[in-house]
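Pilot study result, target chain (547 residues):
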Amino acid sequence: MIPGNSPVVILKEGTKRDSGRRATHNNIAAAKAIAEAVRSTLGPKGMDKMLVDSMGDVVITNDGVTILKEVEVEHPAAKMVVEIAKTQDSECGDGTTTAVILAGELLKNAEELLEKGVHPTAISNGYRKASQESLRLLEKISRPISKNDTSTLKAIAITSMTGKSSEANADFLADLTVRAVKMVSEGSGKQITVDRDNIKIQKKHGVSISDTELVSGIIMDKEPVHTGMPTQVSKAKVALIDAPLEIKKTEIESKIQISDPSQIQAFLDQEEASIKKMVDQINKTKANVLICQKGIDDLAQHYLAKYGIMAIRRAKKSDIEALAKATGGRVVSNLEAISRDDLGFAGLVEVRKVGDDDMTFVTDCKNPKAVSILVRGGSEHVVDEIERNLDDAIGVVSLVVKDGKIVTGGGAVEIELGLKLRKYAPRIGGREQMAFESFAQAVEVVPSTLAENAGLDVIDTLMGLRKAHTQKGRNPHAGLDAYTGKVVNMKSRNVVEPLRVKTQALSSATDVATMILRIDDVIASKQPEGPPPDGGDGMGGMPPGMM
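Predicted structure:
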């Protein structure tokens, strides 16, 4: 054998490798498949998906990120696309489907350029330049909005709910959303902050969606610990405690030597005195409501009931923190240090029957910085979907309150962006210009998908939109009315979206598309059989069957 002609094996047996054009095409195909999975959910006439997990639990939704979270994706490139949906959701609350289908369209157009012999690096550079120009243009196209412009804020919330289960009650739910966001917003001018976590959503199926209510305080799925306690307290002075009202058990095993029966009684009396002292400390502050994160001893319950204090135990940490913001109270860890200054205030604390369960409502708080929305609906699936819709609406309204910038919806901004990018493209020159123009074409996937889902002719619709944006007396706010199939002024229709939803979707989609394009080798290690030795994580690698 001639030296050097024998094959050199450098990869472990069982390792799969795809390289060159094949690897690129596999990755692009996986990303496109993810985009196709959610494409039909976009717009006012988007359809829902029914997802059934391994346990038989059913989820019915048209929320892009929920669909992608529920579907167990194996392919690593597909997982990258799912990640941008998750990022979009955490950053903006809405626009997840837009980000995913845009990434899919960018990769589809890139595949055509690859077939023409354009190098992936040239495509990536062209896409990045187009993305930067798009962000500049979007900033220019956007218009400012005041935090106090309630009607526009409501319109933004309604736009985010269009085509979803909540659409029939969109006006009512949008009003709740705007009020909730305004309540928890802090700061002024350009320094306004909104923490979405301060808006708690509680679900309880039963009655109708129109019975959903906003509470200027907190709702807890708890009830008083003792039947002798009041179930309604007006002008409540609320003590928030994260220490147990119990005798602490020793951390090490210990024995008590008792030689006389009277010593038993003395021991019990000492325990009782310790618990009574704890309750007396609370009673001294004139608190009439106690919310405890830990346990409350039976004897402590008795004394609290005797003093007329409503007590709730084992409250969630998140509820305790939210109550502190809502009532203005402080969470106390040391009972001996509690004082009147630590108490929060609520106009009313009462136990209400909601469905079959008792729930405690802490309401009428002064200037609450944490509020609750009690979501109602005909079934569990309906309530779950309304919660997701509200979460999206809260996200977009919060963004606009913080950023103060909006753009027109209904595909208007995408058409305007596509036209301006095409006009700018000749300045780029070379092969990057081809990628720049492909980006401009990809951006128009939003109006074309809206038309497709509405059962309209895509080409005719795009031509009509471009004509409205370019002809004499052009209208940069011309978008598609999916219900009538006509091109209308979306600004006058109050179809608006936050600027950041668009900028984040464009940035994320460009990033993932360029990253996938630059991959020319996929090496997947063989998965170890059985658990790895010594409880370690084993060798890294991608899952089998990803190709």
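One observation from the pilot: The longest strand covers residues 344-354. A full batch analysis is planned for the follow-on phase.
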